[in-house]
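Attaching the record inline, Q. Sequence:
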Amino acid sequence: MTDHNHIHDENCNHDHEHDVVILTDDEGNDHEFIIVEVMEMEDKHYAVLVPHDDEDGEGIIMRVEEDGNGEEYLVDIEDDEEWQRVVSAYEKFLDEHSE
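Structure, as predicted:
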């Protein structure tokens, strides 16, 4: 789901309280996600996303990168070791903030 990743901000003239990302899947279908958390780890940023229409649904984590113009975009985390580090860090974050 990384063919097109569009990050909205507070100035995008949409009616929502959270930042919304539209991800396009391999079949060309758009899916809206809410960015619920952005965390930094090892000088990289990661966004935790949940489906816009099902905020209790299963979330995903993607790495935030910047293009040459400073525009942010999201990419899948394909390295298993990186994925495990990010998931562990997010679980630790959740534990610390749920107390």
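Residues 5-97 form one domain. The longest strand covers residues 30-41.

More tomorrow.
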